[in-house]
# Entry
Amino acid sequence: MKATIERATLLKGLSHVQSVVERRNTIPILSNVLIEATAEGGLKLMATDLDLQINETISAAVDQPGATTVSAHTLFDICRKLPEGSQVSLAAADGKMTIMAGRAKFQLGTLPRDDFPVIAEGELPVSFELPAETLKQIIDKTRFAISTEETRYYLNGIFWHVSDDPLPVLKAAATDGHRLARITLPRPDGAEGMPDVIIPRKCIAELRKLLDEIDGSVGVSLSPTKIRFDLGQALLTSKLIDGTFPDYSRVIPTGNDKILKIDPRSFEEGVDRVSTIATEKTRAVKMALDRDKIILSVTSPENGTAAEEVPGEYTALGFEIGFNSRYLLDILGQLHGDTIEVHLADAAAPTLIRENDKSAALYVLMPMRV
# Structure
C-alpha cells in the first residue's frame, strides 16, 4: 500500500475515527485503525470497539492500492505534530508502515487487515432522514439525563420510539431515575413501524461530535439490534442496548396545579450563585415559594449558608421544596425562552419543567429532602 495525502485531510479523518478506539484494549488489533487505499483514489479509515464502528472516506493520491492496520492513537499523535500544510506519504509493507512528511520519518508496526473485526450490520429495514440540526437538538436536550450506573444498563442511552398521539411523532427520552428529559418531534417519513430502540451513550457522544461538521441531513437506518448514521463521508454503526426502557410516561406529572413562571436566566444564575457553597454531600438547593417571590437557599455544615431572592410569578399556596442544584442547572441550561413554567405539587412529588405547553422538550425532576 502506498498513498500521499494532505496532513489536514488525514488529521481530520483520524480525529473522527481514533476517538472510537479505547485507550486500553485486551485485544491488540482493537487499538488499530484499518487504512485501505483504493484503486479509485482515496483512503478508507475504519475503527471499532466491537460495539461501535466508524468508517470514513477521505481523498488521497494512491500509488499502490492495499490495506493494513496501525495504532490509531499513535498515528493521530504523529499526524498532529507534523508541519502544517505538509504532504504525508504512507507506505505499508512487510509488517511495517512508513510515514514521511518533510524531513520527518516514522516507522510503525502493523497488524494484518484480515484480523480486523467488522460489525455485521445485517438488515436495517427502517430508514429515514433527519436534519443535522434536529439530531443535535434531540441529543442536546436529553443526553445530560442519561444514567451512568452500569447496573441499570438499559438507562445508559437515549430511548427513541414513535407513537400516534394524536399526530405521528418521534420521541426521545433519557432518565437516570432522578430526572427525566424528553423531546417530541414530528415523525420523519419512513419511521413508521420503527422498533423501540435505546442508543448507547458512547454512540451518542461520537455522533454529536460529527454533527458539528454537517449542514444537511443525516440518514438513519436501524433494526431492533443495530443503528447506522450516514453522515456523508462518515458512517457510524452501533449496536443498540439490549434491554427494556421503563414506561417513563408514568412519572410525568399531569395534575401539578401550583405553577411558577420564571425567567430561566436569572433563575439559573441565582441557583448557580447559592450553590457555590454546596458540597458533594449537600447539593440540595431549597426553594421557598411565596406570592411572586422565591427564596433560594443552601445550607452547608462545612461552608455556611447562602440565600438569594429571585423574581417570579406565583399565586398558589407557599411551601418549600428542595432540588439537586446540579440537576436543576442541567435542565435550566437547555431552556431558552424568556419565561419557563415550573409545575409543582408538593415537597415530595415529581416537578415538571418546560418552556410552555407548546414546547417540544419537557423535563421532570424529583425533589430532595431539605
Q: What stands out?
A: The domain at 2-115 is CATH 3.10.150.10 (DNA Polymerase III; Chain A, domain 2). The chain has a mean pLDDT of 95. The longest strand covers residues 104-111. The helical segments are 7-18, 72-81, 132-142, 201-211, 264-274, 325-332.
